[in-house]
Amino acid sequence: QIHFVLLVSRQGKVRLTKWYSPYTQKERSKVIRELSGVILNRGPKLCNFVEWRGYKVVYKRYASLYFCMCIDAEDNELEVLEIIHHYVEILDRYFGSVCELDLIFNFHKAYYILDELLIAGEIQESSKKTVARIISAQDQMVEAAKEEAGSISYIIAQAS
Amino acid sequence: MNSIFSGTRLRDMIRSIRACKTAAEERGVVRKECADIRASINENDPHDRHRNLAKLMFIHMLGYPTHFGQMECLKLIASPGFPEKRIGYLGLMLLLDERQEVLMLVTNSLKQDLNHTNQYVVGLALCALGNICSAEMARDLAPEVERLIQFRDPNIRKKAALCSTRIVRKVPDLAENFINAASSLLKEKHHGVLITGVQLCYELCTINDEALEYFRKKCTEGLIKTLRDITNSAYQPEYDVAGITDPFLHIRLLKLLRVLGHGDADASDLMTDILAQVATKTESNKNAGNAVLYECVETIMAIEDTSSLRVLAINILGRFLSNRDNNIRYVALNMLMKAIAFDDQAVQRHRVTILECVKDPDASIRKRALELVSLLVNENNVKQLTKELIDYLEISDEDFKEDLSAKICSIVEKFSPEKIWYIDQMLKVLSEAGKFVKDDVWHALIVVISNASELHGYTVRALYKAVLTYSEQETLVRVAIWCIGEYGDLLVNNVGMLGIEDPITVTESDAVDVVEDAITRHNSDMTTKAMALVALLKLSSRFPSISERIKDIIVKQKGSLLLEMQQRAIEFNSIVDRHKNIRWSSLVERMPVLDEATFNVRRAGSLPASVSTMAKPSVSIPNGVAAAPLVDLLDLGSDDIMAAPSSSGADFLQDLLGVDLGSSSAQSGATPGPKAGADLLMDILSIGTPSPAQNNTSSIDLLSTAGINNNPSNALDTLSSPAPPHIATTASAGGMFDLLDGLSPSPSKEATNGPAYPPIVAYESSTLKIEFTFSKPSGNPQETNVQATFINLSPNTFTDFIFQAAVPKFLQLHLDPASSNTLPASGNITQNLRVTNSQHGKKSLVMRMRIGYKLNGKDVLEEGQINNFPRGL
């Protein structure tokens, strides 16, 4: 089971946090501080796993971002690397060669996509196409609502 | 969309935060934004909610408090539009966690949304529930979720399946409700639904035995077929990862098969073929393939014995281990630890490779490899492996030395074939990583050295040489000065040379140099300095020719800033000064052989202090305190100082220093404390300063002690002792008495066997002797059974014999009838007493008694008080 997902930039800025196990806000900031310290300081070419408080944290760096997932000691680390990569590929497709700035200004989109990939810390969908389809269906609903609201306010504006 | 309303847009806020040059500037921007958001929340304009929450989430990620936005999430969730619900649920999952009460308020909205006509709204609710639901919410909403597992749209089915996974994790009782729905998902073709369905079944199997049985019977074959189909399936671009069709599904199927096969030979048998196929056919040049192989090996190792498969598994691990990819090597090391359980030999074959991994630059790999190596050690390879590890210890990173040295020590202790090898290896570890070595490790080393009498000379010489080179390794220095203090004469005279040794020339002065260096070095800690001081005291007798110089070093410590050191320096100085007057040399004799068994028990158990005081052998005879211990002190050599029970490493150290921690507790009668060292020194000192006898009672008691002390060796000591009783001083009586506890010959046995209470002579006159023996009924520490034996020492028969006793209020006394009321000459009668001590552990037993009988027709009355009950009753 994945206990949490963490995206941290090379400068240690948090770009996304998702908690599937209960951590208080205080614990969350402590975890983030501790882990980014460990992970950002690991040299290149080392393995992508860090043992931490009896758990394992699997991390992978993509450009300036570290994608980290915390799992139980007996879980399959190699698979988690695939899950991370799976997520990155979906983000990449969605944003069109994704970069850190996309995830900063559209952080909520990154969350929406993650929610189509993981629930309860377990993988939900192995098809990138399916995730993309479901996300775009929901984006369209939001667009439609926006247009509707836009046109109403336009009408109101006209009327007054 | 909200650009026409007041306040900044989300994008603008993010920009201005990113533009901040300093943390203070960022805090300023965030503060202003938060103030705006609060104001906007108070205006309660629904149009701003969406944007406010989005901003708050960003601010939250930066680590600022955002609790004031929690209610906004609930409002957004309750609003009818999809965009509002979408951001509302996102905020809920980000800003709240399952332990917050606010979460309960959302249960109703969730229930409505789970029944919403729009499947994407249902999806949002399922996702939120699956990520943060609490046990109560799980109970409330389980029926809705269960129903949604059968929903027409696969997107909802898969979300409902994972949501159920969370629900049964939170409330395992609900598991059986989901068994049927879960098994229906296993027939799905949609990969998302299948993956989540398999996951749910796995979860149910681990929680509920009934579910496990059900799935094992009904689904094993189907699952095997599904796995075979996807393993053999043609290229499917949608699910292909590096040539593997849906590795995620592969892995989940293998995981579920693992629990089904575990403990069931039939199910295991069914899956043999497909596991062999996966193990042999899966491409291993990419991570995805290796992830599947990893899972396959895990399953093979967990299911019931299929030895041909296990060979396959071990081979895969062997390939992993030699892989150049660090990740693969890491998981190989991890899994080989499990493989040891069924094929130690196969893992042993990779020993050389594993040993190389201990030296890997990657800390994660080093750690795994070290764990694995320590499992691989056995009697046959311990020497070789230890050598490799110690060689590496010399060059390893500083931050790895602690782990590494701890492992080496535990290996060496566990598998050491002979003492000299053990000592050699430990000296190497202490030399390379002495500052990382834990107290119990070097304590154990000293115990072993003490027991290896034929190696004393060898060891002290080796330590002397080592400490000259590695004087910065604190624990090495400690062991060295302890040994020099004890065996300094063997050092300078090259006594007990082994064939392998080169003779060295060490003068007495050289030996003292080492100790002086340790005591004067500014970064030596208190323990080291204290040990050095004791060593100096001992050396002053070993090396009389330079005792003046030693005395000077001791005297310098009078100026120590550490009170303990100061006090000891003064006291030791006084001892050295006066040593010509008394038989003091025995005071600084070589420490008796330390008891390994006692040490090991203590080390393993770290007995709580109360237990150790209970176990403390009690020969306390308050009436007759003074003489025996004094005699023992002067006759130190024959007894076992180590036997004084104490509970921790620190205590042990005190023991090493010749200090009985218990002494303070006994002296004051109540408070055990770490300041005991000083008390003992007081005692030693008082011996060195013979003061004239001044206390009548004490000398009277002394005489009676000799008579009634039932501890033969003590009695003997007392009788044979040339020590005049007048040395006793009231001031030191208690403390010295406690030394006796530490020194009496048998306590180690009692310390290990738990509390046993020696019998006492409760009373003795010229005609009558009363002995008490004790036993404790199990289960009630307050209660003590006392068997009293009355012995007639006279040549006449006592008739109408009656024993009466009285106790203080905190005790209750019950007397059984005596075995007879006639006590023939030289005969005895017995009587049982039961005492309940309501202040058990705090107060000792005490009793007044009166004995009446007729002797030759005349009434005789004898009275007395019994104060010498063993402590701890």
TrEMBL record, chain A:
Q: What GO cellular-component annotations does this UniProt entry give?
A: AP-1 adaptor complex; cytosol
UniProt-listed PROSITE patterns = CLAT_ADAPTOR_S
Q: Which Pfam families match?
A: Clat_adaptor_s
**Which UniProt keywords are listed?**
Cytoplasmic vesicle, Golgi apparatus, Membrane, Protein transport, Transport
Q: Does the keyword Hydrolase apply?
A: no
Source domain of life: Eukaryota
Query: How does the protein's chain sit in the membrane according to the entry?
Result: Peripheral membrane protein
Instruction: Indicate the segments forming the AP complex mu/sigma subunit domain, all copies.
Output: 1-141
Q: Where in the cell is it found?
A: Cytoplasmic vesicle, Clathrin-coated vesicle membrane; Golgi apparatus
Quaternary structure and partners: Adaptor protein complex 1 (AP-1) is a heterotetramer composed of two large adaptins (gamma-type subunit and beta-type subunit), a medium adaptin (mu-type subunit) and a small adaptin (sigma-type subunit).
What this chain does, per the entry, is described as:
Subunit of clathrin-associated adaptor protein complex 1 that plays a role in protein sorting at the trans-Golgi network and early endosomes (TGN/EE). The AP complexes mediate the recruitment of clathrin to membranes and the recognition of sorting signals within the cytosolic tails of transmembrane cargo molecules.
The similarity annotation says: Belongs to the adaptor complexes small subunit family.
Protein name in UniProt: AP complex subunit sigma
TrEMBL record, chain B:
Domain GAE positions: 755-870
Could you provide one GO biological process annotation from this protein's UniProt record?
vesicle-mediated transport
Q: How does it sit in the membrane?
A: Peripheral membrane protein
Q: Which UniProt keywords apply?
A: Cytoplasmic vesicle, Golgi apparatus, Membrane, Protein transport, Transport
Where does it localize? Answer: Cytoplasmic vesicle, Clathrin-coated vesicle membrane; Golgi apparatus
Name a GO CC annotation attached to this entry: AP-1 adaptor complex
| UniProt cross-references to InterPro entries, sorted A to Z | Adaptor_Complx_Large_Subunit, AP1_complex_gsu, ARM-like, ARM-type_fold, Clathrin/coatomer_adapt-like_N, Clathrin_a/b/g-adaptin_app_Ig, Clathrin_app_Ig-like_sf, GAE_dom
Q: Mind telling me which Pfam families this protein's record contains?
A: Adaptin_N, Alpha_adaptinC2
- The positions making up the signal sequence are none
What PROSITE patterns does the database record attribute to this sequence?
A: GAE
Q: Could you tell me what this protein does? A: Subunit of clathrin-associated adaptor protein complex 1 that plays a role in protein sorting at the trans-Golgi network and early endosomes (TGN/EE). The AP complexes mediate both the recruitment of clathrin to membranes and the recognition of sorting signals within the cytosolic tails of transmembrane cargo molecules.
Family from the record:
Belongs to the adaptor complexes large subunit family.
For this entry, the protein name equals AP-1 complex subunit gamma
Q: Which organism is it from?
A: Brassica campestris
Its organism's taxonomic lineage begins at: Eukaryota, Viridiplantae, Streptophyta, Embryophyta, Tracheophyta
